[in-house]
Design brief:
This protein is an alpha/beta fold and 283 residues long. Helix content is 35%, strand content 16%. The strands form 2 sheets. An 8-stranded parallel barrel has the order 1-2-3-4-5-8-9-10, surrounded by 7 helices. A two-stranded antiparallel sheet has the order 6-7. The longest helix has 21 residues. The two termini are 30 Å apart. About 2% of the residues have low confidence.
């Protein structure tokens, strides 16, 4: 059995949250169990085809039973969730907002539209602002990536997969997506500035596939990112959103999620560590 991950002094200012997508193909209910067992500060609910993820009362019961708060709701905007919570994308966002408000979550994570959702994409930026004006819940729009096949590239998202090219009140940065899009991650963070309100922490190696590796197993600046969040008084959440589909057992999946939590808390704490006159961290 994997032991809970202790809270590192200095790391507790930023909450570290488990995305329920990180336990796939296990269930949403399993994500709550693992989050409680390992000592995560809460969960982000990925609304997808699992009926429990769509059921506000079931989610509230899981949260209460495991004493694990729900800090964010990821709206159903994946290809596999095109019919979840209606086929109308604005209805999906309205239901995600309602779920967040009822569950006490501060953030709704949303992807930019697919290019074939033409009417939705034309009004997306203005529509997100309108919805954000109606609630205290943050609509944090997430950076995506071009789709690649061999040497061909397809722009699948509109207005832009690089969401910093449009005007949003809040952003989510996903470090697996920055790896897949092969951009300078910290430069994107700079462009987001103080509108960065949510982080999906995962790693990647620049593959055309969206890898979502455990932080530290790819080439993304995961540690630098975490230390920067502390230095800039980040007031959002860091969400572990990793791919554990290849885990050979429940124990291996939990070990990966424990490793991700330990990495995150360690590097959040590192930014609080005292330094000598040369700027080197002292133990």
């Amino acid at each position: 059995m994997v032991e809970p991950v202790a809270r590192t002094p200095g790391a507790r200012d930023v909450k570290v949250v488990l995305s329920t997508a990180s336990v796939y193909p296990e269930s949403t209910a399993t994500a709550f169990e693992i989050a409680a067992r390992l000592g995560y500060d809460g969960v982000e609910v990925m609304v997808w085809t699992d009926p429990v993820s769509q059921d506000i009362e079931a989610l509230r019961r899981l949260s209460d039973y495991h004493r694990v708060p729900i800090h964010a709701v990821h709206a159903p905007c994946l290809l596999i969730t095109q019919r979840v919570w209606s086929t109308d994308p604005w209805t999906k966002l309205q239901r995600a907002q309602s779920a967040a408000e009822k569950l006490g979550a501060s953030t709704v994570v949303v992807h930019p539209p697919f290019r074939w959702q033409r009417q939705y994409s034309r009004d997306f930026v203005r529509g997100i602002w309108r919805m954000a004006d109606e609630t205290d819940v943050r609509f944090a729009v997430e950076n995506m990536y071009p789709w690649r096949y061999r040497d061909r590239e397809m722009l699948a998202y509109a207005p832009e997969w690089d969401v910093t090219k449009d005007d949003y009140r809040h952003f989510t940065i996903d470090l697996s997506h920055t790896a897949t899009s092969r951009v300078d991650t910290m430069a994107m963070v700079d462009r987001m500035g103080d509108r960065l309100s949510h982080v999906h922490l995962a790693d990647g190696k620049g593959s055309a596939k969206d890898e979502h590796l455990v932080p530290g197993r790819g080439d993304q600046p995961c540690a630098e990112m975490l230390e920067r969040l502390v230095r800039t008084a980040f007031d959002g959440h860091v969400v572990i959103e990793v791919n554990t589909r290849r885990a050979m057992s429940a124990a291996e999946r939990e070990a990966d999620l424990a490793e991700a939590l330990e990495f995150t808390r360690r590097h959040l704490a590192a930014a609080h560590a005292p330094t000598d006159v040369r700027g080197v961290h002292r133990p």
